[in-house]
């Protein structure tokens, strides 16, 4: 009976600790955003421009018209998936910069299936998504296995793989996969049954190219959160990131956990590529990911690698990108101020000592309260 009570108390304390950690992560994310916006405000003021008008366009512009909302959601879907793909290896303390190669591999796989393979309606959507996830997972397995089995530096491995895959992608789009008879460089369009349903069809208002990939992104975030917090594999990944030596001593196969973190992250990045092909462009186009792959790293850092917070961070970061374009159109302040805000965010989120200090102070305060209560 006593042991059962102790176990119940320990379980309750563990859950309370995890809730505190999530609250701290959300608080630090909000504080980081506010500090970055304040710095941007001061920079605009120092240049002699009107910061109030600029921030009004930046913060309200994306919501003024429905197609702007659609542009924001379209961008947020891809960016959040990329943030999630980076967050999983980061939880294992692996610095994966390979989202770009994984995205393009997923885009190639999805396009190949969606263009050339006749499938019934539902399968025409699902099979390209599965193919994209498998291709992205394969691109994640390569550097993950090199790091886990051969001791290779994951930063170098992922960057070099990016260079290879992007060049192969460019060759295929400009050559074998280029639409016959077209002067423009792009592939044929995917079959209509493979297109992700636009949100415009659901809600009856013009929302641009935003599509049901938004819901796929939300489901992916929840699934990854459950994976990390509720499964043995997630526990192994977290323990590997917390202390690999301790994890090894506790019986965890650290190389396998590292490989799985890269594979899962790669699969999610592959889904981002499928979203671009099936939902946004409807075909392969050169450089269609732009800088999104590396901006996904900022999103993961801003969310402190928590899959649920990544959704919030991705929505906010995409909102900044959309608002920056509108601000440049409506005021005399360029989008460079958004770059300043992004840079401040990166500087602040890499200062891990502050949230760690806050968590320790909360833990000490609660321990002191327990001691007082015990007396």
UniProtKB/TrEMBL annotation:
Subcellular location per the Swiss-Prot or TrEMBL entry: Cell membrane
GO cellular component: plasma membrane
InterPro entries linked: ABC_transp_permease (IPR001851)
Transmembrane segments: 21-46, 125-143, 150-169, 212-229, 292-317, 337-358
GO MF term list: transmembrane transporter activity
Domain of life: Bacteria
Membrane topology: Multi-pass membrane protein
Keyword terms, alphabetized: Cell membrane, Membrane, Transmembrane, Transmembrane helix
UniProt keyword annotation of Acetylation present: no
One Pfam family in the UniProt entry: BPD_transp_2
Protein's recorded name: ABC transporter permease
């Amino acid at each position: 009976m006593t042991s059962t009570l102790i176990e119940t108390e320990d379980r309750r304390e563990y859950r309370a600790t995890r809730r505190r950690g999530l609250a701290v992560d959300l608080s630090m994310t909000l504080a980081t955003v506010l500090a970055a916006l304040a710095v941007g405000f001061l920079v605009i003021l120092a240049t002699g421009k009107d910061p109030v008008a600029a921030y009004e366009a930046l913060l309200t512009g994306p919501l003024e018209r429905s197609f702007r909302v659609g542009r924001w959601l379209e961008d947020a879907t891809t960016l959040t998936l990329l943030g999630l793909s980076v967050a999983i290896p980061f939880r294992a303390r692996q610095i994966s910069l390979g989202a770009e190669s994984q995205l393009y591999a997923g885009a190639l796989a999805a396009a190949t299936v969606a263009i050339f393979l006749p499938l019934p309606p539902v399968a025409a959507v699902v099979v390209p998504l599965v193919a994209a996830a498998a291709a992205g997972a394969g691109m994640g397995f390569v550097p993950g296995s090199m790091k886990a089995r051969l001791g290779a530096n994951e930063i170098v491995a992922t960057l070099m793989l990016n260079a290879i895959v992007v060049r192969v992608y460019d060759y295929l789009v400009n050559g074998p996969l280029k639409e016959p008879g077209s002067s423009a460089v792009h592939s044929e369009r995917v079959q209509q049954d493979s297109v992700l349903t636009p949100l415009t069809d659901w809600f009856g208002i013009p929302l641009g190219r935003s599509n049901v990939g938004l819901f796929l992104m939300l489901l992916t975030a929840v699934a990854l959160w459950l994976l990390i917090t509720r499964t043995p594999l997630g526990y192994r990944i977290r323990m590997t990131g917390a202390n690999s030596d301790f994890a090894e001593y506790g019986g965890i196969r650290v190389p396998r956990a590292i490989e799985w973190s890269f594979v899962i992250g790669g699969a999610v990045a592959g889904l981002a590529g499928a979203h671009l092909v099936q939902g946004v462009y409807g075909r392969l186009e050169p450089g269609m990911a732009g800088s999104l792959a590396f901006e996904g790293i900022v999103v993961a850092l801003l969310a402190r690698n928590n899959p649920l917070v990544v959704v919030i961070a991705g929505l906010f970061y995409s909102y900044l990108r959309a608002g920056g374009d509108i601000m440049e159109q409506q005021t005399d302040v360029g989008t460079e101020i958004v770059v300043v805000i992004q840079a401040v965010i990166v500087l602040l989120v890499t200062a891990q000592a502050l949230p760690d200090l806050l968590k320790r102070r909360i833990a000490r305060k609660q321990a002191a309260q327990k001691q007082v209560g015990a007396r």
